[in-house]
Design a protein that fits this description.
CATH class of the largest domain: Alpha Beta
CATH superfamily of the largest domain: NAD(P)-binding Rossmann-like Domain
Number of domains: 2
Largest sheet: 7 strands, parallel
Low-confidence stretches: none
Strand content: 15-25%
CATH architecture of the largest domain: 3-Layer(aba) Sandwich
CATH topology of the largest domain: Rossmann fold
Number of strands: 13
Helix content: 25-40%
Number of helices: 12
Strand order of the largest sheet: 3-2-1-4-5-6-11
Distance between the termini: 53 Å
Structural class: alpha/beta
């Protein structure tokens, strides 16, 4: 099987390319050539340099590769339309999406039948529109698209989510330094479900082994179970051996305590429960996450530490 991987030098795309080579696939990676950080070993991946947004590059460079499958780890609606024009005769086209399309959850754990097409105040609506296009094209003319929806991605080469609602390394620097830190008094019992980046990559590779079963389908990809934000914070504190005094304050007070933090679109999503059912992916193509949410967080913090990101606080 020849697999064309768009975004092959990125955090997720690189891991997909690496595991595809390890699984014996012929892998052609596509990148604009701008990512200078080496995240994974891409030996065995033959690279093409160009933009997937340029039609002549897709038509004249990518299509002649005659891939059996196409994977895009950071797709847009325009990419879906481009692939529909040029790749609709391949066996499979796999797209990476997000479980943020379901927000807010109406039931827990949420499986793939949970409502997601309509816009809500907090869901990732542009991704809903893109995913709807993929599924509708499958139903209308057999476009071989599949949507994999990861939860909060965690692992090496990515600053992990913190309890301010983003990926602000200053939060973990303060924990490491033992400085006092404040969090929202609403967050401790909120459920969070993370997914380890290597586990996410493995889902794409396993899905390719079941080409007929996955077309036109959506799959939640995550660790097995959710944990509370309180447990998530405890895991970070334990790993960092933090002596920080952690206080709980009204959510609206955080902006006063940390005026340099950009709070827009942070806490309103963090304070939503994230609890997903991944059994469809387990049944259909044998998805088997190797790490728990806690283990994924530790892996991410180990990387932050080894990369020297935890040792200097802003003045």
């Amino acid at each position: 099987m020849k697999v064309l991987v768009f975004g092959a030098t990125g955090e997720v795309g690189g891991r997909i390319a690496r595991l595809a080579v390890d699984a014996g696939r012929e892998v052609v990676g596509v990148s604009r050539g701008r990512n200078k950080r080496t995240m994974v070993d891409l030996s065995g991946v033959r690279m093409l340099t160009g933009s997937k947004r340029e039609e002549d590059f897709i038509r004249d460079v990518c299509v002649p590769e005659k891939p059996d499958a196409v994977i895009d780890s950071v797709p847009s609606l325009a990419d879906v339309e481009m692939y529909h024009k040029y790749f609709k005769d391949v066996k499979n086209i796999l797209f990476c999406s997000s479980t943020g399309t379901y927000a807010p959850l109406l039931r827990m754990p949420a499986d793939e039948t949970h409502p997601w097409r309509d816009k809500t105040p907090v869901n990732f609506y542009p991704q809903c529109v893109r995913d709807a296009k993929i599924i509708d094209l499958w139903q209308s003319d057999g476009f071989p698209g599949t949507v994999l929806r990861p939860t909060n991605i965690i692992g090496e080469h990515r600053v992990p989510l913190e309890l301010w609602g983003s990926r602000d390394i200053e939060f973990f620097k303060k924990l490491k330094a033992g400085e006092p830190i404040a969090i929202s008094n609403e967050c401790r019992n909120v459920l969070l479900q993370s997914g380890y980046n290597w586990d996410l990559a493995s889902a794409f590779i396993k899905a390719l082994d079941h080409p007929d079963a996955i077309r036109g389908e959506i799959y939640n990809i995550s660790c097995k179970r959710s944990i509370t934000l309180e447990r998530y914070l405890e895991t970070a504190v334990e790993f960092l051996n933090s002596k920080s005094e952690i206080s709980e304050v009204p959510t609206e007070k955080l902006a006063e305590l940390y005026p340099t933090v950009e709070w827009k679109n942070r806490l309103e999503f963090l304070l939503l429960h994230m609890c997903l059912d991944i059994s469809k992916a387990e049944r259909t193509f044998g998805y088997a996450p190797a790490k728990t949410a806690e283990e994924g967080l530790v892996a991410a913090l180990e990387w932050c530490e080894s990369a020297g990101l935890l040792y200097t606080l802003n003045a």
